[in-house]
Specification:
The chain is an alpha+beta fold. The chain has eleven helices and 19 strands. It has helices at about 1-25, 65-75, 85-90, 110-120, 125-135, 140-150, 175-185, 190-195, 280-295, 390-405, 405-449; strands at about 35-40, 50, 80-85, 110, 200, 210-215, 230-240, 245-255, 255-265, 265-270, 275-280, 295-300, 310-315, 320-325, 330-335, 345, 355, 365-370, 375-385. The strands form six sheets. It has a six-stranded mixed sheet with strand order 16-18-19-14-13-17. A hairpin with an 8-residue loop joins strand 10 and strand 11. The protein is elongated, with a radius of gyration of 37 Å. The termini are far apart.
Length: about 450
């Protein structure tokens, strides 16, 4: 039986090797022009679909405004509250050449209107006005931003201003940005604003006509076929000081939800016209379309799948117990992948090598990584597949051996030897002396007689 199970595992490993080759060829079409691209399930943080340099630190650019917005939303009880733009907020960025909504010193707007300027039109003047409104100064607001990052346990993210304009101490990674955007999209106010294509800004005390703000995230612009993705529910885009393009977005379709982060993408001519295309949008669209067409939630391990074995002592029945997953496991994998297509690999440091009987069916003995094409798609606890009874005779024998080989017993034995040998020698010597004395006395008595 044991040899058969080993053979079965070997067959599964070989079968997985075949699928690895097929998968590598299948994903060649996902090559991107962006330096950094990351597509992950919005429902399962471990469901990474595509990863290109997601741990590399880079300039987040305007994506920082997502953090600014969520902090304003969470720290303002009334978004209809009026805010007046200060001279400091407006003039401090005039020399930077960054995008603004044309907010004037002394202009009064609501917090909600400023949020639309910030997230829809990518307005840096709005970011400064909001930062001052919440914390008094940009510097104090930046402290709040970094506290926010720390609260999400982001170790590769640092903020230095609320707008995202260039700074040495402002950086993030695609992984961290995905965590940030997932958090932000859980807020209904934030998700509503970033899904707005065109916002009508009401007249203010400085502008007497309605202003129209078009979203800079062209993934939701149905008029641009190269970029538009119908399933995108919202996002934040922007360029960096170096000219690269960034965008983070969320898309939902047929019950599947994804977050896509594309950073450090170029402008490039990919068709026959004279204009350059923004490759952050092109890459995002490519990844979304591939995922929705090819990635499905499939059962990749079930409770009957052999996953290895653990040695068992003190039993007359078995010297091992088989391991199986504690439950059926589903994961996002390419269409066609089933439980037979994956490898269940016990994690050595989390799985016991040997156990004493008795063992009960269902006892958790380890944990395994479920791998497809060399990548871990899920993890699961491993449990005993059957009962293993204890042998009373082996149990008693093992206890005797453990006692005889225990350090305490060995020390006691040595002490006894150290004490007994001298005592025996002394006793022997005393007895010998006594015998000799008696012999001498007997001889002396014979002589006197």
């Amino acid at each position: 039986m044991k040899k058969f199970l080993i053979l079965l595992l070997s067959i599964l490993i070989f079968g997985n090797t075949l699928f690895v080759g097929a998968s590598a060829a299948f994903t060649d079409s996902l090559e991107t022009d962006a330096e950094i691209a990351y597509l992950v399930s919005a429902d399962d943080e471990s469901g990474v679909i595509y990863d290109k340099n997601s741990a590399v630190r880079c300039d987040p650019g305007a994506l920082v405004k997502s953090v600014t917005a969520i902090l304003v939303i969470e720290n303002c009880e009334d978004l209809s509250q009026s805010v007046t733009a200060s001279g400091t907020a407006i003039r401090s960025i005039e020399h930077l050449g960054v995008t603004t909504a044309g907010i004037l010193v002394g202009e009064t707007m609501t917090v909600e209107e400023l949020l639309y300027c910030l997230l829809v039109y990518n307005a840096n003047d709005a970011s400064n006005v909001l930062a001052e409104f919440i914390s008094g100064t940009n510097e104090k607001f930046v402290e709040k931003m970094n506290e926010f990052a720390k609260g999400l346990e982001l170790t590769d993210t640092s903020f230095s201003n609320p707008g995202g304009y260039n700074s040495e101490n402002q950086y993030t990674t695609a992984r961290d940005m995905a965590v940030i955007f997932r958090y932000c999209m859980e807020n209904p106010v934030f998700s509503k604003i970033v899904a707005t294509f065109l916002y009508e800004m009401p007249a203010t005390n400085k502008y007497y006509e309605t202003r129209y703000l078009k979203n800079t995230n062209y993934l939701i612009n149905s008029g641009i076929g190269d970029y538009y993705v119908k399933s995108v529910k919202g996002g934040k885009s922007g360029n960096t000081a170096s000219g690269s393009c960034n965008v983070v977005s969320m898309a939902s379709k047929d019950g599947y939800n994804y977050i896509c982060v594309v950073l450090d993408a170029p402008m490039k001519n990919i068709d026959e016209d004279e204009s350059l295309e923004n490759m952050s949008f092109v890459t995002s669209k490519k990844l979304y379309e591939w995922a929705f067409s090819n990635i499905k939630l499939r059962v990749v391990a079930n409770t009957a799948t052999y996953a290895g074995e653990v040695k068992v002592r003190l039993s007359d029945e078995f010297d091992y117990v088989s391991l199986v997953p504690v439950e059926n496991v589903s994961a996002l994998v390419p269409s066609g992948v089933t439980a037979e297509s994956v490898l269940i690999e016990p994690i050595s440091e989390l799985t016991v090598e040997q156990i004493d009987a008795p063992v009960k069916k269902g006892d958790v003995l380890g944990r395994a990584a479920i791998k497809y094409a060399g990548e871990t798609v899920a993890e699961v606890d491993l449990v005993a597949a059957f009962d293993v009874k204890l042998s009373p005779a082996k149990f008693v024998g093992d206890k005797i051996i453990s006692i005889l080989t225990s350090p305490a017993f060995i020390i006691l034995f040595i002490v006894v030897l150290v004490v007994l040998i001298p005592l025996c020698f002394i006793s022997y010597r005393n007895k010998r002396k006594l015998r000799l004395r008696k012999l001498r006395e007997q001889r002396n008595n014979i002589k006197r007689g």
